[in-house]
Write a structure and sequence with these properties.
The complex is a heterodimer. By secondary structure, chain A is of the alpha/beta class. Chain A has helices at about 1-15, 45-60, 80-85, 105-110, 115-125, 130-135, 155-160, 170-185, 200-220, 230-245, 255-265, 280-285, 320-330, 335-345, 360-375, 390-405, 410-425; strands at about 35-40, 65-75, 95-100, 135, 140, 145, 150-155, 185-190, 270-275, 290, 305, 310-315, 380. In chain A, strand 1, helix 2 (about 45-60) and strand 2 (about 65-75) form a beta-alpha-beta unit. Chain B is about 75% helix and about 0% strand. In chain B, strand 1 and strand 2 (about 55-60) form a beta hairpin. Classes of the chains: A alpha/beta, B mainly alpha.
């Protein structure tokens, strides 16, 4: 008897008894004093966490009756922890998560996130339309994108000036500059790809500049094949740089933090990564820094732009009103200015940046981001926020394989196309 | 037996109840820690569960078919075999030799014991992180040491080199596991009959002979126990590889454990990941059973039963 019960238990408990979804069915708490749990991934810099905690205190002081319990999870564990908690109906009330189809999209399909469509219209949340589209699944807006990002190359202006190098205007320029930097005894470009995810950015920046936004649209919509010559040549750029000794030795052995440290210490002259690092660059680099797109074969190239993470509410929250209030607090003009000034976050809604004290580096990033939001200017895409897990995994491993010469660019491009086709099914 | 037949029915029922009651703890343990997880794993292996959808599709043996035709499974399995062979032989030999050396040292043996015991009490995660720093290509202690003694040509990106990554992690595991082997062997050596060792010495046996023919047979059951743990650990190895390389670069150091994790939790293919985990179980159980039997037979021989 016991065995039968156990087997039945095993079968019924296997899928964790996922909550049936819609928040309208969840009885709401009416207590005057409510605590909401807010889960985020560990920020890169501890100083940012301190700022976030101060901001939460400010929210609490302005909204008596609501307290926020901050739950910080190591970034690499967010996915597993969140999925497990949401499925068991014990999810955080509010959480930060990636906005792409493989992330928030998957949660939305399973009915695990709260439908914010009504909250948007009730509160007139001013999120840019293009950003809203990214968190809309099956006609429901399920999240609030909180950051615009762009990926390019940070470069040490002091080293460039010392060697008489101008900002590279095309790929040939970049290679020539890198060679000159190498001859001076400095690592031209630090590529840190031990963790794997950096590979998505490496491919995004070269490919975006090569094929432009239209070409990227075509690739992401399936109109252009991932094993086309442009993808192959973009992958080959990294293999070529590696073989020519223009990168640090063993990029796949270097972690993101170690790579950034090489750039901050002046041991490497260029660091291809995203604008989210700008604040850390300013805190750590003792030299002037510029931020440029990865050059195209025949021109200066374009940045890969897009949305970073967003904020979501769990479908089973019993404190939806408090959670919505908390999200709304982060969407005011005043808060936007605070985020720009203190976290160097670029909100996904219009913020008047007049009079904001910003370094030239961040001012440039702000101006570029405004162009993304307005739809003016040409921007490529950061591929991994727009594709599925399976595709991303193939891309991340593929770039590692190209850098270590385990595979040819042609083979990796073919694998990308296969992964894309599988993902579409 | 005969007396039971004559016992009153009430007593028999009481005895049955008592028997069930006494067996209950073991039964509950078996159900909770073996049958339930096993049933759950078998269920997951026949569905296409993405970690979210509460009603996953039944796919029959599709996960098993995929497993046998997936080249990465065979690649990861071959890495497991390398891990089992080197990762078992090296700590057993190193551990035994160091344990015997410490055992025979009279002065300062506490310090030696402590020094060799330390890696054993460090959590695997800490070992993985610390050794990742040691192997760091730019600032790591290993490359710096090689540079300091003029061996720059040997400097490598240890964990990023596809032909070295697995062996670099394995070296760390051997370092850590040797400590465990030393600790266990040291306690086993306390039971070795010193008179036999002394007698063989008088008879002219050298150190090697004494170790193989006098000391080793006396600690054989413990030796086999450690061997079993190491071998089975070789199939299920996960934490240290996951922390140090994540199975990379580009799958170069993938073992079944990391591949199973990637499939289940990074690609949200819980069904396929579970099937791979079942493969680890199926492969390691026969080894565990065979060695356990051997160990029991040795123990019985020793006690003369």
């Amino acid at each position: 008897m016991l065995f039968v019960t156990a087997a039945a238990l095993a079968l019924s408990a296997c899928t964790g008894g996922a909550p049936s979804g819609e928040a309208e069915n969840v009885p709401q708490e009416t207590a005057a004093q409510q605590e909401i749990r807010y889960m985020i991934g560990q920020p890169e810099d501890p100083a940012d966490l301190k700022l976030i905690k101060e901001d939460i205190k400010k929210f609490e002081s302005e909204n008596t009756g609501i307290t926020v319990k901050l739950d910080v999870v190591p970034s690499e564990n967010v996915r597993t922890v969140l999925q497990t908690q949401l499925r068991s109906g014990e999810g955080p009330d509010v959480f930060g998560y990636d906005t792409g189809p493989g992330f928030a999209g998957a949660l939305a399909r399973a009915g695990l996130v709260y439908d914010l469509t009504k909250a948007y219209s009730d509160n007139n949340w001013p999120i840019y339309d293009f950003a809203k589209e990214r968190v809309t699944f099956d006609g429901k807006i399920v999240g609030v994108p909180n950051q615009i990002e762009e990926v390019g190359i940070f470069y040490n202006k002091d080293i460039f000036t010392k060697l008489g190098l101008a900002q590279p205007q095309n790929l040939g320029d970049l290679k020539a500059a890198a060679q000159k930097i190498k001859d001076s005894g400095v690592t031209p470009m630090v590529v840190s790809d031990k963790d794997g995810w950096q590979g998505g950015h490496l491919l995004s920046i070269v490919l975006s500049s090569d094929v432009g936004s239209d070409g990227m649209d075509a690739l992401l919509n399936g109109e252009k094949s991932w094993d086309s010559p442009e993808v192959v040549s973009s992958l080959a750029v990294w293999q070529d740089f590696q073989k020519s000794g223009l990168l640090n030795p063993s990029p796949t052995a270097v972690t993101y933090d170690s790579g950034n440290a090489m750039f901050y210490s002046g041991k490497a002259a260029m660091n291809p990564t995203g604008s989210w690092l700008a604040l850390d660059v300013e805190r750590n680099a003792k030299f002037e820094v510029g931020f440029i797109p990865f050059p195209a074969p025949d021109g200066p190239g374009i940045f890969s732009g897009g949305l970073g993470s967003g904020i979501f509410i769990s479908a089973t929250t019993k404190k939806a009103d408090a959670a919505i209030k908390f999200i709304g607090y982060g969407l005011t003009e005043e808060h936007g200015r605070w985020a720009v000034e203190n976290l160097q976050d670029i909100p996904a809604y219009p913020v008047n940046t007049d009079g904001i004290e910003a370094t030239p580096l961040f001012k440039q990033i702000l101006d570029d981001s405004a162009k993304i939001a307005e739809g003016t200017g040409d921007f490529g895409y950061n591929i991994d926020v727009l594709t599925t897990d399976a595709f991303n995994n193939t891309m991340w491993k593929g770039v590692q394989a190209v850098l270590t010469e385990q595979k040819t660019p042609e083979k990796v491009a073919k694998e990308l196309q296969t992964a894309y086709e599988k993902s579409k099914k | 037996m005969a007396r039971h037949h004559h016992a009153p029915a009430v007593t028999r029922r009481a005895q049955t109840r008592l028997g069930l009651l006494l067996a209950l703890p073991a039964l509950i343990m078996t159900v909770v820690f073996f049958l339930f997880p096993m049933g759950s794993a078998l269920y997951f292996s026949v569905v296409d569960f993405d970690g979210i959808d509460p009603t996953p599709e039944f796919v029959g043996f599709a996960n098993y078919t995929e497993m046998f035709t997936d080249p990465e499974v065979w690649h990861a399995l071959s890495n497991n075999v390398i891990w089992i062979v080197i990762g078992t032989a090296a700590p057993m030999v190193i551990g035994l030799l160091i344990a015997v050396l410490i055992w025979s040292v009279q002065r300062g043996s506490v310090i030696y014991r402590l020094a060799f015991f330390l890696p054993f009490i460090l959590p695997g995660v800490v070992i993985g992180i610390v050794w990742t720093w040691i192997y760091d290509p730019a600032n790591g202690w290993l490359n710096r040491a090689l540079g300091a003694i003029g061996l720059e040509s040997l400097q490598r990106g240890w964990l990023g080199d596809p032909s070295l990554a697995l062996y670099a992690v394995l070296a760390t595991a051997i370092w850590a596991y040797s400590a465990f082997v030393i600790v266990i062997f040291l306690s086993a050596l306390r039971n070795v009959d010193i008179e036999l060792v002394d007698a063989s010495r008088i008879d002219g046996a050298n150190a090697g002979n004494r170790l193989i023919h006098i000391i080793l047979p006396q600690i054989m059951p413990v030796f086999l126990m450690v061997l079993t743990l190491t071998l089975v650990g070789g199939f299920s190895v996960f934490d240290i590889v996951f922390i140090m390389t994540g199975g990379g670069p580009a799958d170069a150091s993938n073992v079944l454990g990391t591949y199973s994790y990637t499939q289940a939790f990074q690609l949200s293919r819980i069904g396929y990941g579970t099937t791979l985990a079942l493969l680890i179980t199926v492969l390691s159980v026969p080894f565990a059973v065979a060695l356990n039997r051997l160990q029991r037979r040795m123990a019985l021989q020793e006690t003369g039963v």
